Amino acid sequence: MGYTVSSEEAESVYFISFHSELFFIDIFAASEFFLLATMSYDRYVAICKPLHYMTIMSIRVCRTMVICCWGIAFCIILPPFSLIATLEFCDSTAIDHFGCDAPPLLEISCSDTWLAARMVIACAGLIFIITLVCVVLSYISIMKTILKFPSAKQKKKAFSTCSSHMIVVSISYGSCIFIYLKTSGKEDVEINKSVALLIASISPMLNPFIYTLRNKQVKQAFIDLIKKIAFLSKK
């Protein structure tokens, strides 16, 4: 005997799924910014205090910093997520977006979303400001130290050490500030979707090239793999 799902039950399943996806997207995104700030501190220690690097950035310290990043991210996203979870959705179950992000989810709610929308912007701004201040302060100290290096070779090596992180920071902050910290209208939906695609797909895809392919051992292993494939293809 079959079981027929009512429209209310189907809608409930839809929005439980939406809220679950929203929670994980938000906590992963928020923790990424705090991890980027932590990485900027790591670069600061590596360049400004190289002799003390192993002592300052020990395994225990790194683990504690990662746990703190996740904990702070959870505490910040919890208030807006709790407000969004109480909203009613009665008009549509279709989100005009690639994923379940807060702004498109608010657009299909039939409740008053003013407070939830302001809370989303406030928490996003708080995350951006806290982490961006850490990144900027770290790089100000890094730049001061680099400029004191006597040789151009040392300066180039130091800039190379930071360049990968700076590329990821630029993509992440620029994209998210564009989405969350600007006045958006319905005509901006398509642009926001494109920017969200950059954050969710293109940026993670570039990470292996940005980070690992700058490593000499990885470069050599990649070259050896290409040579091996070319050799096998000639047989």
TrEMBL record:
Entry keyword Signal: no
Keyword annotations: Cell membrane, G-protein coupled receptor, Membrane, Olfaction, Receptor, Sensory transduction, Transducer, Transmembrane, Transmembrane helix
Record-linked InterPro entries: GPCR_Rhodpsn, GPCR_Rhodpsn_7TM, Olfact_rcpt, Olfact_rcpt_6C-like
Topology in membrane: Multi-pass membrane protein
Family membership noted in the UniProt record: Belongs to the G-protein coupled receptor 1 family.
G-protein coupled receptors family 1 profile domain residues: 23-211
Cellular localization per UniProt: Cell membrane
The keyword 4Fe-4S is assigned to this record: no
Transmembrane segments: 22-41, 61-81, 119-142, 163-183, 195-213
Source organism, top-level taxon: Eukaryota
Protein name in UniProt: Olfactory receptor
UniProt cross-references to PANTHER family, sorted A to Z: OLFACTORY RECEPTOR, OLFACTORY RECEPTOR 6C68
